[in-house]
Specification:
The chain is of the alpha/beta class and about 110 residues long. It contains 5 helices and 7 strands, in the order βαβαβββαβαβα. Helix content is about 40%, strand content about 25%.
């Protein structure tokens, strides 16, 4: 089943690579390079899944999990190299926490 995915990641190469890899599965994939841009795209594309980095130029992704979930049945997957954020992310309502570097197969499995 095709998903609409929003990737919020400030490292352009990582974001564009994930976009390319996930688009091969017929998903619609958009990139945002900051929290502000991510929230704007959230409202316009209404994604099924958000892949959310933590360290972004305008804040910490972990502090915006509730905004990205936005009271709808949307999966939010946190991607971070900081494994000590796992508990905070879970307490904020994240559906899954993946430590970087991430495995694309794991991400694909979590989309469905």
């Amino acid at each position: 089943m095709k998903k609409t995915v929003l990737i919020v990641e400030d490292e352009r190469e990582i974001c564009l690579l994930l976009q390319k890899l996930l688009s091969t599965d017929s998903n619609s994939v958009e990139c945002a390079f900051s929290l502000n841009e991510g929230i704007q795209k959230l409202l316009s594309i209404k994604p099924d899944v958000v892949l959310l980095d933590n360290n972004l130029p305008d804040g910490q992704g972990v502090d915006y999990i509730k905004e990205f979930k936005n009271g709808v049945n949307r999966k939010v997957i946190m991607l971070s190299a900081m494994h000590n954020l796992r508990e905070k992310a879970i307490s904020q309502g994240v559906d899954c926490f993946l430590e970087k570097p991430v495995n694309i197969k794991t991400i694909r499995n979590l989309l469905y």
